[in-house]
Specification:
The chain has 595 residues and is an alpha/beta fold. It has three domains: 184 residues, no CATH class; 155 residues, no CATH class; 239 residues, no CATH class. Helix content is 49%, strand content 13%. The chain is built from 26 helices and twelve strands. The strands form three sheets. The protein has a six-stranded mixed sheet with strand order 5-9-8-10-7-6.
Length: 595
């Protein structure tokens, strides 16, 4: 590949989206990186209205070109982007160090709410991204450049510039993606396959293998694996629990062993696990049919991208899958991958992805035209609307707020969705239509935060509730939906709202509620915009204003994000206020029209 490969994607964006037609190439380069490294791996489809608000590249940007909440993160990690698009210029390590220093200083100032001297786009993008962070979320700096270092030594020198941020307590990690990395990522996303149809690897000696039933263990050549990886890319990992994601510590350890003691790699590395429909040993060739690496993606990627002066060998287990059906084979592959992935931790979502209830929910949602991504990187059908695409993490977070009625938990600790008391309420029930409707409301709310009517909303109380209050808005609308569907009536629960445990037990009852959106109307989005505006102003803003006034009297601080972390505020303050507003004509008319 050459530089024109990235240029072609830049040109594609300018042609496809009218909003980008007047953008400079260096801006479009940043958009290309966001698309292929983040949005093509998530359920949040890349579009101008999503990414343009993330861009901060202008005067007084402190070296930050974009800030956004990582759509592939379970907890809302914030990504801080610096990008350098070059055709001929050489990237110097001192220039990188200077940019990173400015970024680190800016983040420290922003964390302490010092915004003077920054451009407005930077401050807004930062606040928008931070509003979506959960308690365990972190800040990550990602450096994208089209420049391709001529040697590994030059690349290492550039990457060492990140040491200037080692004392910055706000930044968790710094990641570099050079021209070759970007090209590979683009190719991997564009040419995604679940498996490789047929190919081969070289083993250490003629007919040298250990057989167990219909499977074998062999020693494969690192160079032959490198050749295979460079030929086949992500198709090699199609059946893995998740596609390759960089992990600095693991990458460095693998690279260090290859560089300093390749003869010991066999002893220090866990090797690969390949599943296949069939294989054949022919002398020193291992020929494979319909195969995928289900364990060892990190090893494969590093070997594929490092200089190998002297060939070496690593272990490889080859498992021949004989399932009675494709579903049975897929389930077996998932169990093998789950049991053997130990070098790099697997997220809970990856482990759950092929469980019985998830596969069943996938099928049920598919019947109502919702694409349920069970693995990051799955190819999304282009014909679907944004609200018809979701992931386990995204759906689970929404359902914690709507089904289980815990909006504070959904906002600050969505990983609770994997606890049995919540998980099975969400994923083992047959309320896929309600979940699909919730996804649509979630999409409308995202649109509302970007371009909905906010005139007249108080800057200190209501507007912060717009930026931070999505899960509470979702909970409020679902609560009224439950009332209207006779899951319960307000009088029967009013007395329980002061007792959080009792309130949780009652409100999470889904009952026979099938729909959230009952009536389809022409101006559906506008109707929801009005609902969001009223709830932000007259419910959430009102309750936060009261809590803020009380905190001020007690000489304490109360940030909007902290108020919205607590489910008990939803029970004792927000629900009673919501019910009082619902019984006035304006909100009731809008709710009745849709629900």
């Amino acid at each position: 590949m050459n530089q024109s490969f990235i240029d072609s994607r830049i040109s594609d964006l300018a042609k496809k989206y009218n909003e980008f037609k007047d953008e400079q190439d260096y801006h479009l380069f940043t958009y290309v990186c966001l698309k292929y490294f983040y949005y093509d791996l998530s359920s949040d489809r890349f579009s101008p209205d999503i990414v343009i608000p993330c861009m901060t590249d202008a005067a007084n940007d402190s070296g930050i070109d974009a800030i956004f909440c990582d759509p592939t993160s379970d907890v809302g990690d914030v990504i801080i982007v610096q990008s350098k698009y070059y055709r001929d210029t050489t990237l110097k390590d001192e220039a990188v160090a200077g940019e990173l220093y400015k970024i680190g200083k800016a983040l420290t100032d922003l964390q302490h709410n010092k915004v003077e001297g920054f451009n407005e786009k930077l401050v807004t993008a930062y606040k928008n991204a931070v509003s979506q962070m959960e308690e365990k979320a972190v800040f990550k700096v990602v450096f994208f450049t089209s420049y391709k270092p001529r040697t590994k030594k030059e690349q290492n020198k550039i990457e060492k510039a990140a040491s200037i941020l080692k004392e910055n307590k706000f930044i968790e990690d710094v990641e570099f993606n050079f021209g070759n990395d970007i090209e590979q990522q683009i190719e991997s996303c564009d040419n995604q396959k679940l498996c490789v149809d047929t190919d081969k690897l070289e083993i250490d000696d003629k007919d040298n293998y250990l057989k167990y039933e219909e499977s074998i263990i062999v020693n494969i050549s690192a160079r032959s694996l490198q050749d295979l990886q460079n030929r086949r890319r992500n198709g090699l990992l199609g059946m893995n629990l998740r596609y390759f994601i960089k992990q600095k510590a693991v990458d460095a350890g693998i690279a260090d062993t290859i560089k300093k003691e390749p003869q010991n790699f066999w002893y220090k590395n866990n090797g690969l696990l390949i599943v296949c429909d069939d294989y054949k040993i022919d002398g020193k060739e291992l020929k494979l049919t319909n195969f995928s690496i289900v364990n060892g993606g990190q090893t494969t990627n590093r070997i594929g991208n490092l200089d190998i002066t002297n060939d070496f060998y690593l272990q490889c287990k080859v498992v021949k899958i004989n399932g009675a059906s494709r579903e049975e084979s897929d389930a077996l592959i998932a169990e093998i991958a789950k049991a053997t992935n130990s070098q790099k931790p697997i997220k809970k979502a990856d482990i759950k992805a092929n469980s019985k209830e998830q596969l069943e929910l996938h099928r049920r949602l598919e019947k109502i035209n919702v694409f349920y991504m069970t693995k990051k990187g799955d190819k999304i059908p282009s014909t679907l609307y944004p609200w018809q695409v979701t992931t386990l993490e995204k759906l689970g977070k929404i359902a914690i707020a709507t089904v289980v009625q815990l909006p504070g938990t959904a906002r600050s600790n969505s990983q609770r969705m994997y606890d049995d008391d919540i998980y099975y309420l969400i994923f083992s029930k047959t309320h896929e239509r309600f979940l699909a409707d919730s996804l649509k409301v979630s999409y409308y709310y995202d649109q509302f935060t970007r371009k909905g009517p906010k005139e007249g909303l108080d800057k200190e109380t209501a507007l912060p509730m717009v930026a931070n209050g999505k899960t509470f808005q979702m909970a409020c609308i679902a609560f009224l939906g439950k009332i209207r569907s006779s899951v319960f009536d307000y009088n029967s629960i009013a007395g329980a709202l002061k007792d959080p445990d009792q309130a949780k037990a009652i409100l999470r009852n889904m009952g026979d509620m099938e729909f959230l959106i009952k009536n389809k109307i022409d101006d559906e989005q506008e109707c929801f915009f009005e609902i969001f505006r009223i709830i932000a102003d007259e419910v959430l803003g009102y309750c936060y204003g009261n809590a803020l006034e009380k905190a001020t009297q007690e000489q304490a601080a109360l940030a909007p994000s902290n108020y919205l972390k607590l489910d008990q505020n939803y029970f004792k303050d927000i629900i009673p206020r919501l019910w009082a507003r619902y019984n006035r004509p304006e909100l009731k008319n809008y709710i009745d029209e849709i629900l």
